[in-house]
Amino acid sequence: MQEPRPITVAIERTVDSTLDRYAQAWVRHGVDLATHFPGFLGAGWVRESRGSKRWHMLYRFEDAETLEAWERSPERQQWIASGAGFASEARVERRTGIEGWFDAPQGVVVDGDRVEIRPSASAPPVWKQMIVVWLAFFPMNVLVTFLLGLIPGFNELLLPLRLLISTVILTPVMVGVILPFITRLAAGWLHRGDRR
Q1: Residue 117 in contact with residue 147, Cβ under 8 Å?
Q2: Are 31 and 9 in contact (CB under 8 A)?
Q3: Could you give the domains of the chain?
């Protein structure tokens, strides 16, 4: 069975700036509604500047099933309807899993209490992503396999057990250290030719 993957939804909304205080209350109410749904992991929002019509909102659920339950809920439908007179969706993006590693260092950036809004760039082509993952994974796999082979008796273990041990070691190292490092290193090549 596939492990559930958290999904972050980024929504750009156009909001009537003359109803600013009302819109703020409306957004807070929407976040409050979402917090009572199973799988909710957090939410936030920010305006580009005082009086700006563009607002950016983020929310995150633990998997597609809990996200869909929230998005189809009567509570959310009623909340959206209550803001229809002053807020409309301009753009919606959903991010999950490996694709987040390849995002350009742009877009909506949330780091603790710091929020930055910059123009969003498209993800690089899948073939470039595959090359970068391979360039990161192959040498690490060779290194870990070699080092584990130095442990007396390791090579006599059954193949599935050897693979289990090596992937338990490799996965957090790849996800937490190697892939973020190599994607930053290759960012110029990954996004070369991006016209957005």
Answers
A1: no
A2: no
A3: 7-117 (3.30.70.100), 126-190 (no CATH)
- Count of beta carbons in the 10 Å neighbourhood of residue 110: 15
Look up tokens 């959310």; give the residue: 76
Of the candidates 80, 84, 95, 170, the one whose C-alpha atom is nearest the C-alpha of residue 133 is 170
Residue 13: strand pairing partners:
55, 89
Whose CA is closest to 84, among 26, 41, 25?
A: 26
pLDDT in tens, 23-78: 888 888 988 999 889 989 888 888 777 777 888 888 888 888 999 999 999 999 99
Q: Render pLDDT for 155-164 as a digit per residue (tens, 0 to 9).
A: 999 999 999 9
Region for residue 4 given its phi and psi (left: phi exceeds 0; alpha: psi -120 to 50; beta: otherwise) = beta
**Which residue in the block uniquely carries the two structure tokens 């892939």?**
179
| Between residues 103 and 185, the one the model is more confident about | 185
pTM for the model stands at 0.50
> Nearest Cα to 67, choosing from 110, 5, 1, 2?
5
